[in-house]
């Protein structure tokens, strides 16, 4: 009796594994490959590497932070003090 339970459990695991593999294969096949980077040198051109993207994001963050620090402080209401 235990053998039938064990065989049923193994069969269920095999079926679930096959279905999961099939679903993962379907999602991988439907995602298109990214286009190759354009060879343009304009200012609006996206960075070619992850390192360049990281540097660009850091520069944008620094510029935004500098602009925020130069802005005039907001007035704080008396009841918030």
What does this structure look like?
The chain has helices at residues 2-30, 50-70. It is an all-alpha fold and 81 residues long. It has a domain at 1-30 and 48-71. The protein is elongated. The mean pLDDT is 80. Residues 39-49 have a biased composition (Low complexity).
Short description:
This protein has 81 residues and is mostly helical. The chain contains 2 helices and no strands.
Give the end-to-end Cα distance, rounded to a whole number of Å: 75 Å
Mean pLDDT across all amino acids:
80
Instruction: Tell me about the largest β-sheet.
Output: none
- Taking all Cα atoms into account, the compactness measure Rg is 28 Å
Number of helices: 2
Count of strand segments: 0
Give the DSSP E fraction (strand runs of 2 or more residues).
under 5%
- Topology pattern, helix = H, strand = E: HH
Uncertain runs with pLDDT below 50, 5 residues or more? none
- Which structural category fits the helices and strands? mainly alpha
Query: Helicity range of the residues?
Result: 55-70%
Shape: elongated
Biased composition (Low complexity): 39-49
Biased composition (Basic and acidic residues): 72-81
Region (Disordered): 26-81
Question: Which structural traits does this protein have?
Answer:
81 residues; mainly alpha; 62% helix
Strand and helix layout:
Elements: H1 2-30, H2 50-70
């Amino acid at each position: 009796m235990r053998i039938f339970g064990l065989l049923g459990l193994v069969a269920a695991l095999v079926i679930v594994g096959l279905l999961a593999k099939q679903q993962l294969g379907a999602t991988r096949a439907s995602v298109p490959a990214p286009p190759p980077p354009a060879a343009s040198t304009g200012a609006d051109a996206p960075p070619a590497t992850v390192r360049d993207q990281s540097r660009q994001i850091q520069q944008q963050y620094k510029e935004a932070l500098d602009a925020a620090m130069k802005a005039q402080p907001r007035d704080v209401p008396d009841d918030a003090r």
